Automatic annotation (TrEMBL):
This is histidine kinase. The modification 4-aspartylphosphate is found at D62. The lineage of its organism: Bacteria, Bacillati, Cyanobacteriota, Cyanophyceae, Acaryochloridales. It holds the Pfam family Response_reg. Keywords: Coiled coil, Kinase, Phosphoprotein, Transferase, Two-component regulatory system. Transmembrane segments: none annotated. SUPFAM superfamilies: ATPase domain of HSP90 chaperone/DNA topoisomerase II/histidine kinase, CheY-like, Homodimeric domain of signal transducing histidine kinase.
């Protein structure tokens, strides 16, 4: 390791000599001692040392010099090498020079001429200690900064890996959900199509037999009556099952939410919900339920009204289908509030509630407890897709058996173009 350097500056050769001698006595082994005749010489020397990346630890400068005064020399050195400790030698009590050096060169110490060699040696030793200490602190600081930088780098790499893993997981989950959906659709459609197929083949067989009997002139009236009955029953079955399959396909088409086919626009949310409820009036009229909508009627949102209409319709239809016994009078409530740039839409019924074990499954495609009543189990799956994809929001459900069910939607007040797609 290169030794630290002590620079002595004076315009008198005798002074420089004694400085060198006294300092060498103590620091010969640990430091290099350089001398400069006057201020200009000193600044040139310091420039050279800095250029050579030397360890300039201490500079001792006389105050009274003909070319540049000591305080100005120390000030320049301090600017060039701020970590160097500055000591000034002064013959007379020159308060101005000292205070100037303190202010501009962060003067470490001043020594009055004539000085005691021991005092000089002690001062320089302390200065060297101080210099080494601050160098160490600086090294620590640099090491610490490097470590922090490395750690930050590591952390950001970890974060990146996590994000990639997360999106891979989401993708895998989506693929799994899609697989499930396709398998479910195939299964669901298989039943009505299979039934229709069976009825059609019965009809086909019976028609062949009838045609044969007719061609042979052996057609009896009773056979014709029997055939007509079978034909009626079979065609009824075919129609009914194909209707079922068509409805299922219609529902399934909605699962693949296509927001581009619906217009995005600004609308007042409460009057809009009320208009959707008016469309449901024919269904509600047959019940004793009360539906209310509350909140600030002037509240506007920019979003997809078509998607919201499907959500509202599904909520109400679910309450009608699942929440109440026939003849029961339920309270169905929509409540709309604004929280900063979000709209909170709460829908509540006071029906039978959803058992805890069913709650995690309600958004799954084909989960239904109403299959016998024509439920396909796609309703809430569609709602979930609409809310999270088309409407760019979130959906949560709270339900308690015998108390009722609540769905809460958080929607952005203004759905920016492209936002819905990005979330999908
Ligand atoms: N308000 C509610 N009260 C009680 N149970 C509910 C309510 N809403 C939904 N559920 C339960 O969640 C299940 C899933 O609902 P979802 O709307 O997805 O399907 P579905 O209504 O059975 O059939 P679909 O909507 O396709 O005709 C329902 O079968 C029912 O068990
Ligand atoms: Mg439903």
């Amino acid at each position: 390791m290169p030794k630290p350097i002590i620079v002595c500056v004076d315009d008198e050769i005798a002074v420089l000599d004694s400085l060198r001698r006294e300092l060498s006595e103590v620091f010969e082994d640990t430091c290099e001692i350089e001398t400069a005749m006057g201020g200009k010489d000193a600044i040139a020397l310091v420039h050279d040392l800095i250029e050579d990346e030397c360890d300039l630890s201490v500079i001792i400068a006389d105050y009274l010099m003909p070319d540049i005064k000591g305080d100005a020399v120390l000030q320049q050195v301090h600017q060039l090498s701020p970590q160097t400790l500055t000591i000034m030698l002064t013959g007379q009590a020159n308060v101005d020079g000292i205070s100037n050096a303190i202010n501009t060169a962060q003067l470490y110490h001043y020594i009055a001429k004539p000085w005691q060699p021991e005092a000089l040696q002690l001062t320089v030793r302390e200065a060297l200690n101080r210099y080494q200490l601050s160098k160490k602190i600086k090294d620590y600081q640099q090491t610490l900064e490097r470590k922090v930088e490395e750690r930050t780098q590591e952390l950001s790499e970890t974060l990146h890996t996590l994000q990639t893993t997360q999106s891979e997981l989401i993708q895998a989950e989506k693929m799994a959900a899609l697989g499930q959906l396709v398998a479910g659709v195939a299964h669901e459609i298989n039943t009505p199509v299979g039934n229709a197929l069976l009825a059609a083949s019965v009809l086909n067989n019976e028609t062949s037999s009838l045609t044969q009997a007719f061609e042979q002139g052996a057609l009896k009236r009773s056979a014709l009556v029997g055939y007509l009955q079978t034909a009626q029953e079979s065609s009824d079955l075919i129609l009914q099952n194909l209707h079922g399959a068509a409805a299922l396909i219609q529902n399934f088409k909605q699962v693949a939410v296509d927001q581009t086919s619906h217009e995005q626009r600004e609308f007042q949310i409460i009057p809009y919900i009320e208009s959707v409820l008016t469309n449901l009036e024919p269904k509600l009229k047959r019940t004793r339920h009360t539906v209310t909508v509350s909140g600030d009627a002037a509240l506007k949102t920019t979003s997809y009204p078509g998607a919201l209409s499907q959500v509202v319709t599904n909520f109400v239809m679910n309450s009608l289908m699942h929440a109440y016994q026939p003849g029961e009078a339920g309270q169905l409530k929509f409540e709309v509030t604004q929280q900063q740039d979000r709209i909170i839409l709460e829908y509540t019924d006071d029906g039978c509630g959803i058992p805890a074990e069913h709650q995690p499954k309600i958004y799954e495609p084909f989960f239904t407890t109403g299959r016998d009543r024509g439920g396909s189990g796609l309703g809430l799956h569609i709602v979930h897709n609409l809310v999270t994809q088309s409407l760019g929001g979130t959906l949560s459900c709270q339900s308690e058996v015998s108390v009722g069910t609540q769905f809460m939607l958080q929607l952005p007040l203004t759905l920016r173009k492209g936002e819905a797609h990005a979330r999908g």
